[in-house]
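Q:
Got a chain?
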Amino acid sequence: MNKKIKVVAFVMAIMMMISSAAFAMTGTVKGGSLKMRDMPSTDGKNLGWMKNGSTVTVSECGTTGWYAATGDVYGNVKCKGTPTRLSGYCMSKWIE
């Protein structure tokens, strides 16, 4: 009986890891440069801009209309210079 419990617990742990890994996805910034913020709200501090067409890693953040995202962020709206890899929040409607 103890062995069955261990097997079930092991299978459940594997399923949780697979579902967590599948939750993260990549997307593409569309419609111009996209602001990354420190919280999922337009009240959040602007951390910088991600370039139109750039690839980002996104996941749900629990706030409708926003993704938690990681991408290359620039210090200016024209996305010139050297980007910094940052994580923050972006409006989901601007990521495909």
Remarks:
- The radius of gyration is 18 Å.
- DSSP finds one helix and six strands in the chain.
- The helical segments are 2-23.
- Residues 17-22 have pLDDT under 50 and may be disordered.
